[in-house]
Amino acid sequence: MKATPLSNCERRFLLRAIQEKKVHPPFLAPFPKPFPIPFSAGCSRDPSRPRGPIACRAWRTNPLHMCVRVRVFPQRLDGRQCYDYRNIRVSFGADRGCCMVELGRTRVLAQVSCELVPPKPNRPTEGVLFFNLELSPMAAPGLEPGRQSELLVSLNRLLERCFRDSKCIDTESLCVVAGEKVWQIRLDMHLLNHDGNITDAASIAGIVALCHFHRPDVSVQGEEVTVYTPEERDPVPLSIHHMPISVSFAFFHQGTYLLVDPTEREERVMDGLLVIAMNKHHEICTIQSSGVVVLLQEQILRCTKITAVKVAEITELIHKALENDQKARKEGRKFGFAESISNQRITASKMESAAVDTNDVEEEAGEIIAKADPPSEVFATPVLHTPGTAQIGEGVESSWGDLEESEKEEAAEEEGESEAAAFECEKVETEDTSTLEETKTGEPIVLSDSEEEDVVILEPQELPRKTR
Amino acid sequence: MAVELEGGQCRLRPFSCELGLLSRPDGSATFLQGDTSVLAGLYGPAEAKISKELPDRAALEVLLRPKVGLPGVLERSREQLLRQTCEAVVLGVLHPRTAISLVLQVLSDAGSLLSCCLNAACMALLDAGLPLAALFCGVTCALQPDGTILLDPTARQEQEARAILTFAISSSERKVLMSTTKGSCSVEEMQQCLAAAQRAATTIFQFYRDSVRRRYSKS
């Protein structure tokens, strides 16, 4: 599949939309007390404000203490404000450690699994963490399977820094036998639909899956390690110190305009991207700036403040989702992806467990077998001549004769020659003759008289005489 | 060999499906059979690479992605089975020199995965609006050691079974499009499983019909 490139007129439209501010119709609002000189965001652009010094003073000393305000906000294509996130929806699967996160229309699936492995030689008492994000070919038309694009590498690197370097998982607790066996925790993320801001969606999916996952319980007695199945002992959750969540900021027009949580269209026209991963304790886990934008210090500080607010909201949402799932499992209610499909939607439909009548399959099957042709004659067991050579059915006419002739007609290069020779060898075997002189096919067939072409004939090796 | 059935009734697990849930692919569907769920996304008919295009019909490509790890030999063989089934029903001659890519992602595996993939693939083809000669559905049968037939087995039932047979059944006259077997069974047992699968297919096609009718009920 080919990705459609962005046309120039669409690019101009997107950049213009970000630049233009939509002016809301003016409305009356009371002054805040005490009475300051009104310099609110919209007043200077208010066309209805009287101009001129006397008129101004008169307006400011208006006994009604009313100010004509206008609201201005940039125009995002989906109607959001510049600091708004899209709707985040977290749903869990039936397996532990499986979750799906929808950030607007961007969808990421995450699965955590574990395995007992020998530890890394320089870290004998720590568990091993492995993170992998895959861009599924269904996520966007331009994504080819198996091609390691720059985007994939940069996303993987960023997520690794966000989870591994921030030490959000306690790796010491994953050690079972120091130097011999530790838990390897593997986090696989798949991007299912690309509508922008893969980083944030993947970071939320990753941390939710890690929090949701329970590993099997293990007991060590001397040298013996016993891994208990879920039926024997309840699995144990991972020890997670904090939850790093990334927030992305897209910059446009050389850093003049800033949008949080860019969609795919906005990402295509942005100048630069700033990703800040933070936890709810306001600790920055990762910060990365990319693109061709030059940022000022106060811009970055403002972004960190916005991040703190957003991370608090998202962490709240994650905790609620985890609690709901935990409650559903404990109370024995149904859980899994089936429950997250809402029956209210017209695009979703459900069917309860249906019974299938299989009363007379026996008779039906018997009829079919009776009507069917009898199976073809089964050959006797193969005759083994020597190791590597066997024969089924003696005296059967070899149909390879036709193939060999057509091969001879086409062949002019070495491969054709040796293949034809090989076929002829096979024919020799099946016809039960032992003359091997026929293996030499003789003169090569010259197709062109050109002196540039160098035809080299590889003589087929003499096959050892087979004893019958 | 006498085959005993559980009082003459086999049960399919509760099904659910959602159509058109992804915004980028041309057609998408998720199909759930009990706890097994597969998400299918379809792009096509779209421009094909010169190396892959066929002069007289559409080139169909199927990709099956497991949840954990890289796709291996099992996924490749399942991709081939799915591709052959889809090629049998998709009217590719209406779109020559184009490519149709079907990508399936395993969301959870609790038994009968191949038939869930087949069902998800058919729903995605329907959602994308591709011209089809017939619909198809997947049914898995498990033959237990004592000869009982179980339809739509769970993972545990699959492990204990003597043979697992998966059939792709077409909607026109319930013909068999594809069949794959793991384990050993006699010819009679295979025919009995096939007959049971054809009965189950009727229920599944009715579910397809209801889903699509519901989807387009307000337009």
From TrEMBL, chain A:
Its main location: cytoplasm. Gene3D superfamilies: GHMP Kinase, N-terminal domain. The keyword RNA-binding applies. Residues 388-468 are annotated as: Disordered. Residues 85-216, 242-306 form the Exoribonuclease phosphorolytic domain. GO terms for biological process: exonucleolytic trimming to generate mature 3'-end of 5.8S rRNA from tricistronic rRNA transcript (SSU-rRNA, 5.8S rRNA, LSU-rRNA); nuclear mRNA surveillance; nuclear polyadenylation-dependent rRNA catabolic process; rRNA catabolic process; TRAMP-dependent tRNA surveillance pathway; U1 snRNA 3'-end processing; U4 snRNA 3'-end processing; U5 snRNA 3'-end processing. GO terms for molecular function: mRNA 3'-UTR AU-rich region binding. It is found in: Cytoplasm; Nucleus, Nucleolus. Keywords: Cytoplasm, Exosome, Nucleus, RNA-binding, rRNA processing. Residues 402-418 have a biased composition (Acidic residues). One of its GO terms (cellular component) is nucleolus. PANTHER family: EXOSOME COMPLEX COMPONENT RRP45 (PTHR11097:SF14), EXOSOME COMPLEX EXONUCLEASE RIBOSOMAL RNA PROCESSING PROTEIN (PTHR11097). Belongs to the RNase PH family. This is Exosome complex component RRP45. It comes from Zosterops borbonicus.
UniProtKB/TrEMBL annotation, chain B:
GO terms for biological process: nuclear mRNA surveillance; poly(A)-dependent snoRNA 3'-end processing; rRNA catabolic process; rRNA processing; U4 snRNA 3'-end processing. The keyword Nucleus applies. GO terms for molecular function: DNA binding; RNA binding. Its main location: cytoplasm. It comes from the Eukaryota. GO terms for cellular component: cytoplasmic exosome (RNase complex); nuclear exosome (RNase complex); nucleolus. Homodimer. Component of the RNA exosome core complex (Exo-9), composed of EXOSC1, EXOSC2, EXOSC3, EXOSC4, EXOSC5, EXOSC6, EXOSC7, EXOSC8 and EXOSC9; within the complex interacts with EXOSC3, EXOSC8, and EXOSC9. The catalytically inactive RNA exosome core complex (Exo-9) associates with the catalytic subunit EXOSC10/RRP6. Exo-9 may associate with DIS3 to form the nucleolar exosome complex, or DIS3L to form the cytoplasmic exosome complex. This is Exosome complex component RRP46.
